[in-house]
Amino acid sequence: MSMMEKVKERMNALRLEAESAQDKADEAASRVKSLEQDLMQKEQEITSLTHKNSLLEAEVEKLESQLGEAKSAAEDGAAHGSANESLTRKVSQLETDLETSETNLRETTEKLRTTDIKAEQVERKVSSLEAEVESWEKKFEEMSTKYAEAKVELEEINKQLEGF
What we know:
This protein is mainly alpha-helical.
């Protein structure tokens, strides 16, 4: 084999190595681009879920306000017999709103579990909101008990008044 043939063979081998290296570099660049797109999509998901979480927090605040109003209305209902029916409807609506909020909160929690490490911060906030919802449920139960007691008391007062 002549020196020229060896040089040509070596050049061909180097060319094949260079092409192979270029192919690998192209694959790596493609993979990086794909991973960057995945990251951008996950960040958009996090932004979306963060926004949903903010909306749910606002909804919880709204429900807390409504619960306070309902409690106040229940106390007023002890003096006003006709207000009892209105309060019953309001309590029923609050229960429906609370169930809707809990459902939304659970759905958001499930979505947050599928995201990456950044989503863990949002998940902690949702857990905090769940604890708050439980607290409000307990307060709601207490309010319902007080409402029932007030209703009994009102009925007793009405019976006493009818006796006069």
